[in-house]
């Protein structure tokens, strides 16, 4: 038997309607914001691809689509293309660049509508150029903007069962939050290896960095680092400092920044003895994406020199990452942690490989 549908109270219906209005408005705004950045790519074989044009590098055009994720297209097979927003465009001469929208043009060319930037200044430009003359394109990242959170988790696990069981596992987490002129970065890592009943490696640590941008590229940085080791004689390392930095570039093709800090370092030993000194350091952070962001080459680290002593330190990492999709990757890396000049010298090298998760 089919029962009678329940009657909705008018006051409840009005309440639901009032609640749905802002939700629908937000959904419309989100949809408009998503479509406002859409671009169109026409291919030589007649295909028409709609999505956000992210980058052009080494002949690979990267387009993000709502139906297929990131698509890597051979730029030589592109007939023409267009975008609703401005892109930073370099031609093969590398004498000048453009900040312009892409406008559909005849086969083998594209229109540029924006400004041409050179050492002499900016001049308005609206012209057609051959596609073959373009070297790279990137989406600009504005200095001001809404808060943006991103993260990455790298995991490595190796186990060997034989006459002596061997276990080695490591985890590294990175969180980044950009809000307006402020950039926060938190790194945390843990590494443990065991051979039979003997623990060979057991350490953990973290690093927090706060950047306040003064201009589009110059910033002021403050950082705090801590590491604890249960095996080595140098059982504790901590450092803090502050100083200026410069962001050379930060776009879809990668990022590079340097900062010079002045602060203090503290080294503790397993027997309870500790040493402290003021120190100066130079930090670097470099990332370069290749083949339409399928490969990622990265390095980051710090050179430390004690001001009131002969001690120095080298902390760094070099790695190569292969992106399977937007959130899953495989990586190989080499990390070095060396502290010299004190009572004991810490010298640790770590080779790693594993899987990475990004969001």
List the helices and strands and how they pair.
Layout: H1 10-36, E1 39-43, E2 48-57, E3 60-65, E4 69-74, E5 78-83, E6 87-91, E7 97-104, E8 109-118, E9 121-130, E10 134-138, E11 148-160, E12 166-179, E13 182-195, E14 198-213, E15 218-229, E16 234-251, E17 254-269, E18 274-290, E19 295-306, E20 312-323, E21 328-340, E22 346-358
Antiparallel strand pairs: 1-2, 1-5, 2-3, 2-10, 3-4, 6-7, 6-10, 7-8, 8-9, 11-12, 11-22, 12-13, 13-14, 14-15, 15-16, 16-17, 17-18, 18-19, 19-20, 20-21, 21-22
Describe the protein's architecture and organization.
- The chain is mainly β and 359 residues long.
- The protein has 2 domains: 100 residues, no CATH class; 211 residues, Beta Barrel (Porin), CATH 2.40.160.40.
- The chain has 1 helix and 22 strands.
- A 12-stranded antiparallel beta barrel has the order 11-12-13-14-15-16-17-18-19-20-21-22. Strands 1, 2, 3, 4, 5, 6, 7, 8, 9 and 10 form a 10-stranded antiparallel β-sheet that branches.
- A hairpin with a 2-residue loop joins strand 13 and strand 14.
- The longest helix is centred in the first third of the chain and has 27 residues.
- The two termini are 50 Å apart.
- The N terminus is likely disordered.
């Amino acid at each position: 038997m089919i029962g009678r549908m329940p009657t909705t109270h008018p006051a409840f219906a009005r309440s639901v309607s009032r609640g749905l209005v802002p939700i629908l408005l937000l959904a419309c705004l989100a949809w408009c914001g998503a479509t406002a950045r859409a671009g169109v790519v026409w291919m030589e074989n007649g295909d028409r691809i709609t999505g956000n044009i992210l980058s052009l590098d080494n002949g690979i055009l990267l387009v993000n689509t709502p139906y297929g994720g990131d698509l890597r297209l051979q730029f030589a097979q592109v007939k023409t293309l267009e975008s609703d927003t401005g892109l930073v465009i370099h031609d093969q001469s590398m004498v000048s660049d453009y900040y312009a929208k892409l406008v559909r043009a005849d086969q083998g060319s594209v229109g540029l509508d924006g400004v041409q930037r050179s050492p002499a200044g900016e001049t308005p430009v609206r012209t057609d150029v051959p596609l073959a003359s373009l070297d790279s394109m990137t989406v600009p990242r504005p200095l001001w903007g809404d808060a943006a959170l991103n993260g990455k988790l790298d995991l490595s696990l190796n186990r060997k069962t034989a006459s002596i069981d061997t276990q080695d596992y490591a985890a590294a987490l990175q969180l980044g939050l950009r809000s307006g002129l402020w950039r926060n970065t938190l790194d945390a890592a843990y590494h443990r290896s065991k051979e039979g009943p003997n623990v060979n490696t057991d350490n953990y640590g973290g690093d927090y960095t706060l950047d306040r941008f003064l201009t589009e590229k110059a910033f002021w940085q403050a950082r705090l680092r801590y590491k604890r080791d249960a095996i080595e004689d140098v059982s504790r390392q901590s450092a803090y400092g502050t100083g200026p930095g410069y962001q050379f570039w930060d776009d879809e093709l990668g990022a590079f920044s340097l900062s010079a800090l002045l602060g203090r370092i503290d080294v503790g030993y397993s027997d309870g003895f500790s040493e402290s000194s003021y120190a100066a350091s130079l930090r670097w952070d470099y990332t370069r994406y290749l083949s339409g962001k399928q490969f990622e080459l990265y390095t980051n680290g710090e050179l430390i020199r004690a001001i009131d002593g002969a001690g120095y330190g080298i902390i760094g990492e070099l790695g190569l990452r292969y992106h399977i999709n937007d959130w899953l990757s495989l990586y190989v890396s080499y990390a070095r942690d060396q502290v010299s000049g004190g009572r004991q010298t810490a010298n640790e090298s770590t080779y790693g490989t594993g899987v990475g998760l990004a969001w």
